[in-house]
Amino acid sequence: MSATADLQRACNDLLSQAQTVQLATTNADGKPLASYAPFYRDDAGDLYVYTSQLSAHTPNLLTGSNISAMVIVDEQSVEQIFARTRLTLDCEVTPIRPDSELHGQKLDAYQQRHGKTVELLRSLPDFILFRLRPVTGMVVLGFGQAYRIRDARLDTFEHVKSA
């Protein structure tokens, strides 16, 4: 198997095993916020999060067109805490209109992944579905194993050899 295929598989495995994504957003004044949300990933590679307007990151998602999203292995499952496997994606953010066909399709898939709680959340008027479309990123598989991702399809990798 090729190195690219191995890197793609590592990214896809991490995204399929994780249920939450860490979000780095900024507010209108440029103040940063770190948060998280459960996510669903579709076949095109886009991530979807469903968040309450009461959450601090939701206004940031509504006003910011770009965010950083990270999926990282649980620290309890690693031998080396300094080199946790992680995938960081620079994403374009788009709210999905509730009256669109896409909204229902993606929320159905999101609910299938995250269970009955989503059924309750769907009944609440303050929740918004967002698409996070990866543009570029970085995957780290361990010491000396960092790779820049040059495209949204997660299939063009460049080994990072210096800062």
Give a brief outline of the structure.
The protein is α+β, with helices and mostly antiparallel strands and 163 residues long. Helix content is 26%, strand content 38%.
Outline the structure in words.
- The chain is an alpha+beta fold and 163 residues long.
- The protein has one domain: Roll (Pnp Oxidase, Chain A).
- The chain contains 4 helices and 8 strands.
- Strand 2 (32-41) and strand 3 form a beta hairpin.
- It is globular, with a radius of gyration of 16 Å.
- The protein starts with a helix and ends with a strand.
Count of the domains = 1
Low-confidence stretches: none
Report the CATH architecture.
Roll
- Oligomeric form of this entry? single chain
CATH secondary-structure class: Mainly Beta
CATH topology, what is it called? Pnp Oxidase, Chain A
Mind telling me the CATH superfamily name?
Electron Transport, Fmn-binding Protein, Chain A
- Proportion of strand residues: 35-45%
Rounded mean pLDDT is 91
Write out the strand line-up for the largest beta sheet, numbering strands in chain order: 1-2-3-6-5-4
Largest sheet data: 6 strands, antiparallel, barrel
Our count of helices gives 4
Helix/strand/pairing category: alpha+beta
Radius of gyration: 16 Å
How far apart, in Å, are the first and last alpha carbons? 28 Å
Q: Give the topology string: H per helix, E per strand.
A: HEEEHEEHHEEE
Q: How many extended strands?
A: 8
